Amino acid sequence: MCRIFGYWGDDGRWLDAMEVPLRPGGPDHYGRYVDDRVSLGHRRLAILDLREAANQPFSFEHLVMSYNGEVYNFRQIRQELGEYDFYTDSDTEVLIKAFHKWGLKALERFVGMFAIALWDKSSGKLHLIRDRLGVKPLYYHHHQGRFLFASELKGLLAHPDFPKRIDPKAAALFFQLGYIPTPHTIYQHTYKLEPGTILTFDGKGIHKERYWDWASILDRPKLGYEEAREALEPLLREAFELRMVADVDVGIFLSGGVDSALVSALLAHHRPKTFTIGFDNPKYDEAPFAREVAHYLGCEHHERSFDEGELRAKLPEMVQVFDEPFGDPSALPMLLLAQFAKESVRVALSADGADELFWGYPINFKWAARYRSLRKLRSLAPLLRRMPLVELKKRGYLASGDLLAFKLAMRYRFYPDETTQAYLLQEPPSREVLEALFLLDLRYFLIDDVLVKVDRASMAHSLEAREPFLDHRIVEFALRLPPELKWHKAILKELLERYLPPKLVHRPKQGFSVPIKEWLRESLGAEARRKVQEPSMLHEILRTRKLGGDYKRLWLAYIFRLWEERWG
Fold first, then answer.
1. What are residue 210's DSSP bridge partners?
2. What class has domain 2-212?
3. CA dist., res. 325 & res. 566, Å (int)
């Protein structure tokens, strides 16, 4: 796990500035490569082969690579490269020699998470590559011949030629979603590279190519019930075991829910260190459940409780760490959890992705039922959408029969207009309402909210977070499951019952929640309202909107103002 950055240009003098804000994600070594066309930088968090020989950027013949992430099956790939000599035990050396042998087709062999900058001196092409599910971030800026890239926006901001011009449309998206979706960013001419994509820059222009797309899996035949049951455990066990590969200690984030409990159960023979944080408000405290799961499985459990004051005190750090407006308040406990785990380990497994893949969000089931009933009002939808009353307007979107408008109106904070909607999202690749809702979460909420939250919070504390459920083979398997096996994670719960008693498997989903509504009713509310009334770009973005009494809208406006003061 590391941070990468660089640009098209032969001076190299701005690499030193770009590396400074990226140091927390790579505290162990700063490396640079400069030739007559490109300047590449690397900040390393040493996880595999801790020696200097494995530092980056890494060169081999005509290739130079700056790489962030882990390819877990690198030892198997190394066996296929028998004609090459190896001088390190790192996955980095395996990757660059795999590219040397197979070209970009080598990506088909990689199992892992990665963001790669690969410079091919012989062809004069710089390739930027992002892993299939977008676990690792990669940003780039391209305008008027200027080409920059970095693992985080703050790396781009450190370059003196980066123009800090806010994109008003992208800012408006933040107020619909609570985050800014790929490929957009808060700045003009600056983008997130799409998951499963290769971007090639040759000094003149950009070419993009998708090398993997989960949507194509939906066309494959569905698995049978018995076939799926037999395949699940071996598939999960192999993926989870691969993510234990490291030359440092590996732990597990354990909430006590089905997903993290299953990761802990299948890896219990390692006697892993598990990490949980609790809160003094029992409504938001999952620590007792996690403690019971860890004790039953025999894990080495670590737990710490925080009060709400300590949680709120993380707000300035959240604004510093998330250099783009980011409204998910669960980033606050995530920062506390990462800080706590880093005291004992350098790597932690997180169970993100299971809710999207195995249909774990209860609210989606509720919305699907409402969608079917409200379609009866479809003929009234255009009229309702023009009504000034919020609840009538909302029903107009719900009744429209448009799954995309329905999803936005239900889950997100402001209701979509046609212009923003077209700019925002692609239609879901399914017309079955429940499946479409989860696929939209997989495509947007997971990638641009959940994974961003975990990556930034962990890397801010020099901790590598790994996502075992996002092994692309598990994703392909889950997308081929018939709905009845995914209904409220049915197939995962059936498997977990082999390792835990039913009372620890079947309990209501709680989630990683924060009492934002209560905070905004108290002292934080006065501060937030004062802050959002100050002159700023916020008023231009929201000129046709009113905050009213909606605490979610007030929270997003407050977060935007804090971000604007620090980064805008």
1. 197
2. alpha beta
3. 10
